[in-house]
Here is the input.
Amino acid sequence: MTDTNENWIYVCEADSIEVEDLKRFDHENDTYCIYRLEDGYYATDGNCTHEEFHLEDGLVMNGEIECPMHQGIFDIKSGKAKSPPACIDLKTYQVKVDDNKLYINL
Amino acid sequence: MSKEIIIIGGGQTAANASKTIKDSDKSYNLSIFSNEDYLPYERPPLSKQLLTSEKKIDDCLFYKEEFYNENNINFLPNTEVEKIDFKEKLIFTGDKNYSYNKLLIASGSKNRILNIEGLNQNEIFYLRNIDECKKIIDKVKKIKNILIVGGGFIGLEIASSMSKLEKNITLVESSAQLMGRIIPEEISRLVYEKHSQSGVKIFLNTSLKSARKKDQQYQINLSNNEKIEVDIIIVGIGALPNTDFLNSSDINIDNGVVTNEYCETSRDNVYAAGDVSNFFHPIYNSYMRLESWKHAQDHGINAGKNIINQKKNYEEIPWMWSDQYDLNLQLTGICNDYDQKVSRGNNLDEGIIFFFIKKNIIMGACGVSKGPKIGKDIRISGIKIKNQEIIDINKIIDKNIKLQKI
Here is the structure.
């Protein structure tokens, strides 16, 4: 049976993202960040909730993504804003890996 | 415990200190005395999206009015503090006085004034607050020719914004390079080229000799003997700590209110933070006064914690940025105390960063790129500075090696 809420979109080869790093993924008119942490893959919206700069050049460290523009910090797994100027959480998305192919559920 | 806290100043430091205090304990009585008419707001857009009308004031508030209401923060706009009696713990504003148990001085900085022979001050425009920004917006709607005095961040950001509005811009800088106080010459030159390509006419080593108003225009004599005619003169030549109201008070002032690493001043229960504070930095083992967005935020948070006895020392590494056209400049640490200067990257698309190194420890890093490409490496540099890491210079300059892997 197929869950109608699932819409898995192919992103990239899973091993093309290094551990503690991220990749930008654009789909239709939206943009996302796909992260690889020690314990797996995660995804959030691509733009910082503070001033809409893309997080693709941000620093991934200790499970957090830091905006390259103003250093707002978000928890990658929950999307929670952890440090000002970020105060609105990032939306998160499910990801899965199947035979080294990485998918995002949009 | 005594609960009456007053913050003098209604800017970013006040916003962050008050949030820190109220997040911890809502029962504190907290008042903010601001000499402006607006709730605390972001100042960076003043020279960028507010000036070009891409943003509205409401977009720039740190917190909406509900935040202050819900947290029972007493925000007093248009309130000028005249003096403080530290012995009696009293603040005087006009005909009223207020008592405090704990006080945070976060009065920020004020414009350095330029006297121009032949002109009154009311003919000259500055940019530090919303009212000054509105005055410039109103004036430039009707005119074409702009003179900017000062080639620092503010002057250059104004030039960048005004060139979007298709104005004729002349910028004069009295020293030999743009942003000369803090930015390496190589980056300064790239920024100079960007402004020149965008049509901004820049005169270095040049100052204003005199000006004369003729009809609605100003005839300007420059020190390089050029004569120009402009419709508005905007001055951005730096800032001074806002300590005038403390002149008759007994508190240690030296290039701002002197504080230790806990934001404590020379008076008991009186703290200072942000632009107005000349604070002791334990990592650099020296005093410094910073005028930057990140510092105003972090120092405010630190002051908030110390005020409510969550004692914490402040050792954040300085960090600042500037946006001009599509260029993003970032600087971390201090860039004037080094024995080696090396660079990483060689083009604006990927970013160029200069590292200032002393005894194999990064003291400061400054970079420029199209968009915030350099953001990550600058941030990692800040971490390395904070940790006082001994670094391998050959790896730092190799763009193929990720900085966080070193």
Q: What stands out?
A: The mean pLDDT of chain A is 93. The interface with chain B takes residues 20, 53, 57-59, 61, 66-71, 84-85 of chain A (CB under 8 Å).
